[in-house]
């Protein structure tokens, strides 16, 4: 696995890795267009829905942001770039040394991320890490915010039970997980539509990238077991998309530092 400022060891089947990387590399140039055809602007609205509610941060870890639209927004945040607006906040301010680590499987996606942040003059603030997230072990208790936008739905229950505690081991006590993903609505009128859209989406990505997961796995209980509590939520897309903030209340014994 490759990183701009460092490396870490990747343990994953090479055949699966190469097929997935080729698929996402192939989709990178058209990813935003495909998203708009399927969902309009709903996914991007969900990505940024709670960005302004994030606490002030110095280090942020971002998983699977694809072509980098959320990363760009995070780099533009007044609390990150030090504009005067953040002086009115009661929370502690980030240091001038704020940094973002962005982990993505696709070199082409990371290339698009890099172009976005370079265009706004934030390239020196971002570390890009290429590889399968299942091989990524974050520095323990190092991050104020961990962001997972439409990322956890790529994994099955067994993969999440194994890897989610590891990913969250990088989040300090008092830090926040920003979780944006699909969900099955409570309304029985919306559930058939949601299930069909999720089935079609998983089928498309399985065709293009070899995605193994075939269903949406609820993660609320897993997050609570990792010592997190939900503190904010916004639901959109007629109930199918949720943007959530989860605060780490404790360093749960269930959190492991190796996957």
UniProtKB/TrEMBL annotation:
Domain Methyltransferase residue range list: 97-175
Keyword Methyltransferase: yes
Keyword presence, Transferase: yes
Name by which UniProt lists this protein: SAM-dependent methyltransferase
A single MF term (Gene Ontology): methyltransferase activity
SUPFAM superfamilies: S-adenosyl-L-methionine-dependent methyltransferases (SSF53335)
Record keywords, A-Z: Methyltransferase, Transferase
InterPro entries on file: Methyltransf_25, SAM-dependent_MTases_sf
GO biological process, one term: methylation
CDD domains: AdoMet_MTases
